[in-house]
Amino acid sequence: MTEHVIRLPDVGEGVAEAELVEWHVKIGDLVREDAILAAVMTDKATVEIPSPVEGEIVWLGAKIGDVVAVGSDLVRLKVRGEDNSSALTGARVAPRVKAPASETAESAPLAKRPIGNSLERAPATTALPGSATGRPPRTAPFRQSARGAPRPEGEKPLAAPAVRLRAREAGVDLRQVPGTGPAGRITHEDLDAFSAQGPGLTRALGLQPRTAVEDIKVVGLRRRIAEKMSISNSRIPHITYVEEVDVTGLEELRATLNNQKRHDQPKLTLLPFLMRAMVRAIVEQPNLNALFDDEAGVVHQHAGVHIGIAAQTPAGLMVPVVRHAEALDLWGCGAEVSRLVEAAKNGTATRDELSGSTITITSLGTMGGVVTTPIINHPEVAIIGVNKMMVRPIWDGSAFIPRKMMNLSSSFDHRVVDGFDAALFVQRIKTLLETPALIFIEG
Amino acid sequence: MKDIFCKLLVIGAGPGGYVCAIRAGQLGIDTVVVEAKKLGGTCLNVGCIPSKALIHVAEEFKKIAQIASGASPLGISAGKPALDLSKTVLWKEGIVGRLNNGVAGLLKRAEVKVVEGWARFRDGKTVEVETEIGPQVIRAEQVVIATGSDAIELPFLPFGGNVISSTGALALTEVPSKLVVVGAGYIGLELGTAFAKIGAAVTVVEAEGRILPQYDAELTRPVAKRLRELDIEVLTGAKAKGLASKGDALSIEAADGKVVTLAVDKILVTVGRKPATEGWNLDAIDLDMDGPFIRIDDKCRTSMRGIYAIGDVTGEPMLAHRATAQGEMVAGIVAGEKRSWDKVCIPAVCFTDPEIVTAGLSPDEAKAAGIGFKTGLFPFRANGRAMTLEKEAGFIRVVARADNHLLLGIQGVGAGIAELSAGFSLALEMGARLEDVAATIHAHPTQSESLQEAALMALGHPMHI
């Protein structure tokens, strides 16, 4: 029997460390060759680490949530028979990419990309089974003697027959009585204390203060989101500009187009119009379609408009990217958005589809609210937030008329975008959306 | 006859009904109890009490026979014993008679009126009793149905002639030389074992794959071993098919599908019991049923206001002490007490050789309930007192929650273990944890030390193994 060390393999170009998000084995487990040992998460994806050998796990090198450097010892196994040197140098194991859990910026000059922008205040959603977002199981430790320690829901109160009899005669529902005895047993003294509180307090039981604090470790995608939000928010001085847009005309056009669309064409939402309007506005203000490498002091101004669409998925926030929106027509934009959002939600989006954006749109649809303060998808310099469309009374000079109004809440990197430029950009988009024909007129 | 008016009418004076009536009387309720047969019901007259009497006789006889055979290491010698079963039956009847009189006295002292006869419902408040001196109408504000249960009869083996029920077996005045017991539940095995000890050649036919199928295999193993020692043939997976024409043989289909004929003197059919829901015009009150049983809630109320049901007629487990507890509770409810069924466990005892006791959840049941648990098992062969009694077979097993060590169940198998059952149910009812039992001094030298040891075992540090 010899010991075999498995080290964290190189899980992707340029990646120096990865976060351990899941152990598939524990000490004492016998594993076969190719059995999955652990899942680690890099900036780019969740990677499963298979075992190159058959053996018994004797040591695990990290806890869930630890950041492990590439090349450091991850697992030690006891293996049968002679071992060769590879065991000591660490076997070459081929990591398996499981599901892209965040965007990558392979083509982008900067490796570190934020996953998200501002609207992701919603809590991490349902964890995918066995995926990187799986939270550690929450354990509710049994508290033996804490006064008022609640019984787990649905559990019968524990009390000796004499206590039950007294409670019955006193008309006390034992389910309401905290038990201080061993295993939460309700004692005569508990009953005395409960009765001494008087009926007023008895009724108030439903509104007792809750003092418990549950510690939930922030791991996986949630941790990644947290880190990148910090980077975006701490490094970028945001200026947020809100303007209202009259989309009555746009909505009429959209309805007409949807009524007349061919079978193979997607149902148009507002997004494709906004994307096309942004493309038009960027022609005049190309500095807003850029990535700001603040360490190098360079703004990479892109000719291609790659629009990230912030989307809430079961695994958390993802930003699928519509590449080269300038080369897609309205229908093309619509088709691409629905395809990518679907892929992101199903977890089938590729790394390319989740990376490389140069400007981002964030929308919470019908929950869009009146105003948001979007956080820029670092290192981009602009993000356009779509608020909820609603009918508002507008004064036309002689009367109030109902108009379909929608706010755009947009944030800009104030280091490289002046307030005037930001306002100009949004006003241009407003003009294009209010007179949608302008979107389609070349020149 | 003049109609009787009362506050509470109890139909059936078994261990549920008579206790309900006595308690109601004690609480000052004007109570009448109707019984068609003898006071005390199945339990006292043809069940628990007489069967235990016979089991005791058989055990005493077997002991002496073993000593007489020279197989005893105790240094005692004795002549070959003889048994006059008709005298045994008289002795047993004496006990039953004393208890009948005792119940009658208790009812009288509680000022409960007893009406002898068969009751039939006219409506939810009125019954008519066929008494020896004519029909008697009783009108009551509240009624408790405590009619009990009857032995199940097999259609192809109707009771009569050589085919007997447990009641018939307890009335035998001669030991049958060849006895076939159909059904290896606790009643069949208790009686089959007793008759084997007093000289009958006993064969047990059981359709299921093993004896006592309602208990877990670990508990029944010592019983199966003892059956073999007593030369009782157990045919599992076998089905009784019917009597040979003369009534002196039983044909059975063995586990391999072959039909075999067993010569018999008596065939004891113990294939279970069914609720006694016929013959008293249940249709007149149209109660909701729960399968063959009367449906009740946690206060033993039926679907009709003012009518309660207790005991075997309301479902499993069909045990006298369940009926008694229900009867006592219902009397309280009728007297205006706030009561409901809150028992943690209903212990069950099987007077086989060795005896089996179960209280609370078995490991299988705990698993099925999705509770994380641990068990501890202490065998009697490591218990000094068991050695001195020559009763080393069996063990005590505890089942406790893994997280807080609350006892969920205690089971055991061993000679005389029925007497330990009180400690089992007390521990469960009091909400004891493993630590409570482990820290309680259990007197030495007794078999009960094995309970403490089983708790220690579950805690990981037994003393004597």
Task: Using brief descriptors, characterize the structure shown.
heterodimer; A: 443 residues; alpha+beta; OB fold (Dihydrolipoamide Acetyltransferase, E2P); Dihydrolipoamide Transferase; Chloramphenicol Acetyltransferase; 3 domains; seven-stranded mixed sheet; five-stranded antiparallel sheet; 18 strands; B: 465 residues; alpha/beta; FAD/NAD(P)-binding domain; Enolase-like, domain 1; five-stranded parallel sheet; 24 strands; 26% strand; globular
Give structural notes:
The complex is a heterodimer of chains A (443) and B (465). With 443 residues, chain A is α+β, with helices and mostly antiparallel strands. Chain A has helices at residues 85-89, 161-170, 188-196, 198-203, 220-235, 248-260, 270-284, 330-346, 419-434, 437-440; strands at residues 2-7, 17-23, 30-31, 36-41, 46-50, 55-60, 67-69, 73-79, 96-99, 238-246, 290-293, 298-301, 307-313, 316-318, 321-322, 359-363, 382-395, 400-413. Chain A folds into three domains: 2-99, OB fold (Dihydrolipoamide Acetyltransferase, E2P) (Beta Barrel); 139-213, Irregular (Dihydrolipoamide Transferase); 220-440, Chloramphenicol acetyltransferase-like domain (Chloramphenicol Acetyltransferase, 2-Layer Sandwich). Chain A is built from ten helices and 18 strands. Helices cover 31% and strands 26% of the residues of chain B. In chain B, strands 1, 2, 3, 4, 5, 6 and 19 form a seven-stranded mixed sheet that branches. Chain B has a five-stranded parallel sheet with strand order 8-15-9-10-11. Chain B has a five-stranded antiparallel sheet with strand order 20-21-24-23-22, sandwiched between helices.
